[in-house]
Design brief:
Distance between the termini: 57 Å
Family: Belongs to the NAD(P)-dependent epimerase/dehydratase family.
Protein name: L-threonine 3-dehydrogenase, mitochondrial
Helix content: 40-55%
Largest sheet: 8 strands, parallel
Bound molecules: 2-amino-3-ketobutyric acid
Number of strands: 13
Function: Catalyzes the NAD(+)-dependent oxidation of L-threonine to 2-amino-3-ketobutyrate, mediating L-threonine catabolism.
Structural class: alpha/beta
Shape: globular
Radius of gyration: 19 Å
Strand content: 15-25%
């Protein structure tokens, strides 16, 4: 009964005045706080609840609702959804690629068991559920330049395996029970005021901090390792626009989104236009280099562009200007 009632709701767009009530898991990672800010601007501060298992910094705690939520504790999650009349769930809780390889058992628990809890909860409570996937959901046998939405996916990391599992479970529950599952495959996300933590693309954030603090950067990837990347503002905007897209416009439930692709040497060259003395040395780390070599070099996001109008705004040169400017501001 619940499911058919949900189906009925979903065949028409929500009434214009009906604001979603959003819960964000893993909210203190690289993406949660910025997404909450954007959603709060549109839907009101109290309608967007950040959650995590860590204690929030004072500025986050003072800027809107924050609650403790452990994605491994189903009852805790259910209580939050019920008590707060949640209608949208954004599931950011996950261990990233490099840290996942260092702790496979924990990655399996958080990325797979945690996801199962969230899927069950979304189905039970008729939620619109957003789960990010990644360039890491592809592997060495996938087409790499560019990787399309639909192709062979045989990732070689526990992170990638858990993300493919999430894509398939969400789509299965969508087709079988009508779960409003929405999934974007993110490139490496670059942000000035939040750290990614444990990924393979993290170098592309650290290089800006080191360029400004010491003028030297040691890169754990080879100079010519090309990966898809995106400015965090584009990532947040894509997520909100995709969550708002009418159901009838979505021909897929999992879309690639792209903005730019660069190598460490190319981003260093772009930074040198502003900081000519930047010195980069390359000391490839076996685990992260092997992971990066198995990931797409470019992403084909033509389906997202066609179906719901996705367009990135930041080019590499704009991203570099913004990152240097924002980090300089933080340091003064
Ligand atoms: C990682 O490097 O693990 C993440 C990702 C691309 O999903 N940033």
């Amino acid at each position: 009964r619940q499911i058919s009632r949900w189906n009925k709701q979903d065949t028409t767009d929500p009434a214009p005045l009906e604001r979603p009530r959003v819960l964000i898991t893993g909210g203190l990672g690289q993406l949660g706080v910025g997404l909450a800010q954007l959603l709060r601007k549109q839907y009101g501060t109290d309608n967007v609840i950040l959650s995590d298992i860590k204690k929030p910094p004072a500025d986050v705690f003072n800027s809107g609702p924050f609650v403790y939520a452990d994605v491994l504790d189903y009852k805790n999650l259910r209580e939050l959804v019920v008590n707060n009349r949640i209608t949208w769930l954004v599931h950011y809780s996950a261990l990233l690629s490099a840290v996942g390889e260092a702790n496979v058992a924990l990655a399996r628990k958080i990325n797979i068991t945690g996801l199962h809890n969230v899927l069950d909860l979304a189905l039970e409570n008729c939620l619109r559920l957003f789960v990010p996937s990644t360039i890491g959901a592809f592997g060495p046998s996938s087409p790499r330049d560019p990787a399309p939405d639909l192709c062979v996916q045989r990732p070689r990391t526990i992170y990638g395996v858990s993300k493919v599992h999430g894509e398939l479970m969400g789509e299965y529950l969508h087709h079988k029970y009508g779960l409003d599952f929405r999934c974007l495959r993110y490139p490496g996300i670059i942000s000035a005021d939040t750290q990614p933590g444990g990924g393979t693309t993290d170098y592309a954030v650290q290089i800006f901090h080191d360029a400004l603090s010491s003028g030297q950067f040691e890169c754990y990837l080879r100079a010519d390792t090309r990966l898809p990347m995106m400015h965090i503002d584009d990532c947040h905007r894509a997520t909100v626009e995709f969550m708002q897209a009418p159901d009838c416009q979505l021909s897929l439930r999992t879309y690639n989104i792209a903005a730019m692709s660069f190598t460490p040497e190319e981003v260093a060259e772009e930074i040198r236009k502003h900081l000519p003395n930047l010195r980069v040395t390359y000391n490839p780390d076996f685990v992260r280099q092997t992971i990066a070599d198995s990931w797409p070099m470019r992403f084909d996001d033509s389906n997202a562009q066609r179906d719901w109008g996705w367009r990135s705004l930041y080019s590499l040169s704009e991203l570099v200007v913004d990152m240097l400017g924002s980090i300089r501001e933080q340091r003064t």
